[in-house]
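Hi R.,

Quick one: here's the Aldo/keto reductase sequence you asked about.
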Amino acid sequence: MLYQLLGQTGLRVSELFLGAMTFHGRDRDDTAHKEYARIVETYAQAGGNVIDTAVNYGEGESEEILGELLQKDRDRFVLSTKYTLYRDASDPNASGNHRKNLKLSLETSLRRLRTDYIDLYWVHIWDRNTPLEETMRALDDVVRSGKVLYLGISDTPAWVVARANTLAQQHGWTPFSAIQVPYNLLNRDIERELLPMAEATGLSVAGWGPLASGALSGKYTRPNGRPTGRTRMSAQDLSPRDRAVAEAVAEVADELGATSSQVAIAWTRARSTAVHPIVGVRTVDQLTDNLDATGVSLSAEQLARLEAPTGFSRGFPLDFIDSTAQWVYGTVGPRVVPRSR
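And here's the predicted structure, written out as tokens:
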């Protein structure tokens, strides 16, 4: 496992993040709890150090389970959790990105996780009803208090992230160091605005759903196939396009002697070094398979074959800008060396 710096900070984070959304304690027995422990141990032994959860995952049980499992080696992990989603559906102030929900959500997470600080604290989703100024100032306060070390934001438009970090820069507040977004061969939307914004401004990208809810795991393209990650899909959920992409993934996997899951995860890393796929698993076998994606290398020709059936277009204005380059810059345009970022 290699490590990269989180955004424009000095924090070292592993290539792959471990998602703990699947860690549910309500219906777990002793066997299931031991499997959670083995998952964390296997991930750590492979060099992984970022574990991602949220205040509402499993109605709080994901954080509680992690709190139990990480007691002895808590400081070796980059512990990542989120706030925004409701803690009490009947309380209008028990959700959102305002100061009150931030304070109470953070205290709840610290208690459940049995720690006195969060390494990476995420705004879970954009809250249109809370001014960005309030959110960024409140987040800066919890960083200055020592209860949070670094900040990220999930599921938010690129312009909102850029404006938030501009406010932070203007006021000397702590900026976001990372964004968390869905990213896989079936959902490439972030390539239009969010990924270019992150690359241009030096933000890390935590990509959730790299297997597209199991569609890219090989479950639907192989006899007796089984998913190697968290899945909520059935064969009937796949469109002709989904099947075409899944088949392309399977073909490349066969060429490389890899699994479909490994190729799908490797593709997200090949598209941008800023991307850290979040792998969410239920068993150690699934995790081991996903971790081996770090050893999969895709050629330019294989990347093109994987992307062809997606039918993805960046749309206006990016495609328009590219198509009018000669009209704008003339024949000398291609000889201008781009500015390095």
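The domain at 3-335 is CATH 3.20.20.100 (TIM Barrel).

Cheers,
M.
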